[in-house]
Specification:
Radius of gyration: 21 Å
Strand content: 5-15%
Shape: globular
Number of helices: 17
CATH superfamily of the largest domain: Glycoside hydrolase/deacetylase
CATH class of the largest domain: Alpha Beta
Number of domains: 2
Bound molecules: zinc ion
Helix content: 40-55%
Number of strands: 10
Order of helices and strands: HHEEEHEHEHEHHHHHHHHEHEHEEHH
Structural class: alpha/beta
């Protein structure tokens, strides 16, 4: 399996480099039907000045401003840069002519208002930012940020030890403790997966709150460092950036009963309509993998007035793509332009049409 994975990776690399460096990208782009490529990131790390969010976030949650700007420049020269909503409206009209690229960022981080918005304005481009409503409404953050903050101040081993002492959820503790004793590589990431998928949510949140306080943390200050305010969101909207829904608390929707899913999605939508003066049309499933949402999530998103929803599965979108399962390409500091370009020009889609999927 490992060999198969490495081979796939090598083929993906070689193929993308070939397209990118020989100019074949432009040829494939002309041959393939027009498409909407959606890029998906979180934070933008400013080239200069302070970045309060940075001290505890995992590396895969940010992209340097300079790197993002080089992407915007490259895509802007070859494709039309649009918001997700405008891109989907063009899919609905059959999408002819130039292909489209939409830049999207999830959750509503403060640097999106301070760094991303001016960057997009400089390039006369639009984009979409998906907002979790609770951090903006109540200045409270979801459990994952508390976990990142705690880990930046203690070791994973200490964290698991304290979790075991404080939590009634001994099954989550044993799963994490097992990982510690095995000396698992990438321990932080694996602990996050246990907390995300296996731990009892209420008990997890209670223990994380206790540990945050124990280490001298202040949730409001943490939220101020991470998330934008509604005023900043309104300013982004005025500069032509689309704002989309992303629930209230960023839960795994598929783990909730259908009425709880509806509540998460609808209250988020209502907050946005109230604060921004207009309903949001585009939605992003929190976490975004296909096992993180289900048909109830789709129904709830439709009922709340959203006309499309994006996932975190790789690929490009055409008029035939399910509007509630739109694909996106993740961008962070490790993102490579030749791989993104090979997708955006339809290069990987060409291979998928002959049954070869190199992108996941
Ligand atoms: Zn998110």
């Amino acid at each position: 399996m490992a060999f198969k994975h490495k081979l796939k990776r090598a083929l993906r690399e070689g193929y993308a480099r070939l397209l990118f460096h020989t100019g074949l990208c432009a040829l494939v782009d002309k041959l393939m039907p027009p498409r909407l490529t959606i890029l998906a990131g979180h934070c933008v790390r400013p080239a200069s000045g302070e970045w309060p969010a940075g001290e505890h976030l995992p590396a895969d949650m940010s992209i340097a401003e300079g790197k993002l700007e080089s992407f915007v420049r490259w895509f802007g020269a070859r494709f039309e840069l649009v918001s997700v909503g405008a891109g989907v409206a063009r899919l609905d009209q059959g999408l002819r002519g130039k292909s489209l690229v939409a830049l999207s960022m999830d959750d509503g981080y403060r640097d999106n208002a301070r760094v991303l918005a001016p960057l997009l304005v400089r390039h006369k481009a639009s984009g979409t930012v998906f907002l979790e409503s609770r951090p903006l409404d109540e200045r409270k953050v979801n459990w994952a940020h508390k976990f990142f903050w705690i880990l930046a101040r203690s070791s994973p081993e200490e964290f698991v030890h304290r979790f075991g002492e404080l939590s009634k959820d001994q099954s989550a503790f044993h799963a994490m403790n097992q990982m510690v004793s095995e000396g698992r590589a990438d321990l932080r990431y694996h602990l996050k997966l246990v907390l995300k998928y296996d731990a009892q949510p209420a008990e997890r949140d209670r223990v994380l709150d206790a540990l945050l306080v124990e280490l001298g943390g202040d949730e409001r200050a943490l939220c101020e460092a991470l998330y934008m305010s509604w005023d900043e969101a309104r300013a982004m909207a005025r500069s032509g950036i689309e704002l989309g829904g992303h629930t209230v608390n960023h839960p795994i929707l598929s783990k909730l009963a259908s009425h709880e899913q509806a509540r998460e999605i609808d209250l988020g939508a209502k907050s946005m309509a109230r604060e921004l003066g207009a309903p949001a049309r585009t939605f992003a499933y929190p976490w975004g993998r296909r096992w993180d949402f289900d048909q109830n999530s789709v129904a709830a998103a439709r009922a709340s007035g959203f006309s499309c929803a994006v996932t975190m599965h790789a690929g490009v979108n055409t008029p035939k793509t399910d509007r509630f399962a739109l694909k996106r390409l993740a961008i962070d500091d490790s993102a490579q332009l030749h791989l993104l370009a090979a997708e955006a020009c339809g290069g990987f889609e060409l291979l998928r049409r002959v049954g070869i999927n190199l992108s996941e």
